[in-house]
Automatic annotation (TrEMBL):
Protein name: Restriction endonuclease subunit S
CDD domains the UniProt entry points to: RMtype1_S_EcoEI-TRD1-CR1_like, RMtype1_S_SonII-TRD2-CR2_like
Organism, as annotated: Sulfidibacter corallicola
Family stated for the protein in its record: Belongs to the type-I restriction system S methylase family.
Gene Ontology biological process terms, A to Z: DNA restriction-modification system
Residue ranges of domain Type I restriction modification DNA specificity in the record: 399-535
Listed Basic residues bias regions: 352-366
Keyword annotations: DNA-binding, Endonuclease, Hydrolase, Nuclease, Restriction system
Cross-referenced SUPFAM superfamilies: DNA methylase specificity domain
A single GO molecular function term of this UniProt record: DNA binding
Region (Disordered): 342-366
InterPro entries: Restrct_endonuc_typeI_TRD, Restrct_endonuc_typeI_TRD_sf, Type-I_RE_S_subunit
Record PANTHER family: TYPE I RESTRICTION ENZYME ECOKI SPECIFICITY SUBUNIT (PTHR43140:SF1), TYPE-1 RESTRICTION ENZYME ECOKI SPECIFICITY PROTEIN (PTHR43140)
Taxonomy of the source species: Bacteria, Pseudomonadati, Acidobacteriota, Holophagae, Acanthopleuribacterales
Length: 574
């Protein structure tokens, strides 16, 4: 396959993660493998340039214009690299001056290049400032026009910070000490070809294991920079490679700009589609949001659905439904009757009655849909109970102990299971035994995760969580669960989270959390509609993921084909 064909297929894999970045890596990789432009046997041999460089080095050394070369041992096997016949493997230390020095009058104006001034992108411009040479000659890395520089410290090295020095004041300057520098022996090497080599994915990837130092301060040693096998083509081919890389990188820039323009346009369309869905949260309007290029996070869509649900916007209100105010009044009478009879036990019933008597709702709450009413979580429940605030002793088997890590995204899981004995279970559940249909909510680590205990489960409630018991004849458990999961939940917590480092909900924050209660019939309709919409989000997310995976696989297959065979191409169309 020709490289031009690869670029022409861009629309087929444009949705693959980092598609343009992969194209840039491909271009740079092919360039230093001799697979980007065709070889010309009339252009000589790369080995001839090494001989020329050696002669230049000897001449400069004899004239005392060159510091004595510190021989650095090669770090890799030269025989393992496959290059064209008229190329040769050498090292930068053989064909350039490593760590060069400048000589200038102190008053000479020169350029200074800090690390932030070195671009990460291919073709980025250097941005230095001007200083007298007297301020730069000591304590910095010497630089001059034509030098090739490479950042040696993490993460700058991995990000490809490197450059060819050009346009310095009076042709000289200095820069950060976190640079490796090579000064080419003209006319042996094109500095921009070296730059391409330093940015190639293989050079960057293989350099990471060679880095030394502590975390956050690791550096690429001079040996890797100076002595890694360097594929050297004839000078004329070097120049053709640089021209071709520039051409293809410019094409990548245009493709990236087209993507950004498309993304901007699609973002506006996505906002419009999201507003339309907010006004009418139907499956049809939800499906509009899953255009493959809108790039709306499905997690954000799920939050939007939950937010709309607790605002009464996912299903219409029915004036025939019994109002929530009547529902809550009947629930209160039912709850008082149960608690006064000693439910769930005499001690706990007294605690619950006392807390219920203290329940208050602030004035001027946000207006709810017709038929809805505000209530605290305790007013919506039969009881709300805190956990036993000690770490339960584990046993090898027995009753599962549910910790905060076992509650995520509205579901109960049994990852990394822990168990307690029957005796521990009875002591830890002395206030109330957890039952199927109860809601568990975490107070920290993290706060606000919740789930419903599934049918048939027998479990022990661990630390930092609370249990909510509802009566399904008045309140739908899944409706309360989605109000807890809704993104506006924290706005309804009256006793706000506390904690210097790890935020956690107070017990009172959960007990007095404000809940918008619809009529019971509407609760059931909301739960059904949210389930329908969430299922559709799951399906659309899977379809989108499959589409992107297909694009990714196509991109990887095309890259593998080109990398294996090479594809010199004289012309490429945008």
């Amino acid at each position: 396959m020709k490289l031009e064909t690869f670029f022409e297929k861009f629309d087929q894999f444009a949705d693959a993660p980092g598609a343009v970045a992969k194209m840039r890596e491909l271009v740079l990789g092919l360039a230093v493998q001799g697979k980007l432009v065709p070889q010309n046997p009339n252009e000589g041999e790369g080995a001839e340039l090494v001989s020329t460089a050696s002669a230049i080095r000897e001449k400069l050394a004899g004239e005392k214009k060159l510091r004595k070369l510190r021989v650095i041992q090669p770090i890799a096997d030269f025989d393992r690299l496959d290059i064209p016949k008229n190329w040769t493997l050498t090292t930068l230390q053989e064909i350039t001056e490593i760590r060069p020095r400048n000589s200038a009058v102190d008053s000479t104006l020169a350029s200074f290049l800090p690390m932030p001034a070195i671009p990460q992108s291919y073709g980025g411009k250097l941005k230095g400032d001007i200083r007298p040479w007297s301020e730069l000659k000591k304590g910095f890395t010497h630089l001059a026009d034509g030098d090739i520089v490479m950042a040696k410290i993490t993460p700058c090295f991995q990000n490809g910070k490197s450059a060819v020095i050009n346009g310095f004041k009076n042709g000289i300057g200095a820069g950060t000490t976190e640079l490796h520098v090579a000064r080419p022996f003209a006319p042996v090497i094109n500095p921009y070809y070296v730059w391409i080599y330093l940015r190639s994915p293989q050079f960057l990837l293989e350099g990471i294991p060679h880095m030394t130092g502590s975390a956050g301060q690791k550096r690429v040693p001079i040996g890797y920079f100076a002595c890694k096998p360097f594929p050297l083509p004839p000078l004329a081919e070097q120049k053709r490679i640089v021209v071709k890389v520039d051409e293809l990188m410019a094409l990548c820039d245009r493709l990236e700009a087209q993507q950004q323009e498309r993304d901007t346009r699609h973002a506006a369309l996505a906002r419009a589609a999201l507003a339309r869905f907010s006004d009418a949260p139907t499956p049809a309007n939800l499906q509009l949001l899953f255009h493959k290029s809108y790039d709306i996070d499905p997690a954000d869509l799920r939050k939007s659905i939950l937010a709309l649900a607790v605002q009464g916007k996912v299903v219409p209100q029915d004036p025939k439904d019994e109002p929530a105010a009547t529902l809550l009044k009947d629930l209160k009478n039912h709850r008082v009757n149960l608690l006064e009879k000693g439910y769930p036990n005499p001690s706990e019933s007294k605690v619950q009655l006392k807390k219920q008597a203290k329940q208050r709702r602030p004035p001027n709450l946000k207006k709810l849909p017709k038929g809805w009413a505000w209530a605290t979580l305790m007013e919506s429940s039969i009881l709300v109970v805190d956990c036993h605030n000690k770490t339960a002793p584990y046993s090898n088997d027995g009753i599962p102990l549910i910790r905060t890590t076992n509650i995520r995204d509205g579901q109960l899981n049994y990852k990394d299971p822990k168990f307690v004995t029957e005796a521990v279970y009875k002591r830890w559940a002395s206030r109330v035994y957890p039952e199927s249909g109860d809601i568990l909510i975490t107070r920290e680590a993290p706060m606000g995760e919740a789930c419903i205990i599934p049918e048939g489960a027998r479990l022990c409630m661990g630390q930092r969580m609370m249990l909510i018991r509802l009566d399904p004849g008045f309140i739908h458990g899944k409706f309360i669960l989605l109000t807890i999961q809704a993104p506006c939940m924290m706005n309804r917590v009256q006793d706000k989270p506390v904690g210097a480092t790890v935020k956690h909900l107070r017990v009172g924050g959960i007990e007095t959390m404000l809940i918008p209660i619809p009529p019971l019939a509407e609760q059931h309709r909301i739960v059904a509609k949210v389930g329908e919409l969430m299922t559709l989000v799951d399906q659309l997310e899977s379809q989108l993921a499959a589409s992107r995976a297909t694009a990714k696989n196509l991109l990887e297959a095309l890259v593998a084909e080109l990398t294996a065979a090479g594809a010199p191409s004289p012309k490429v169309r945008a």
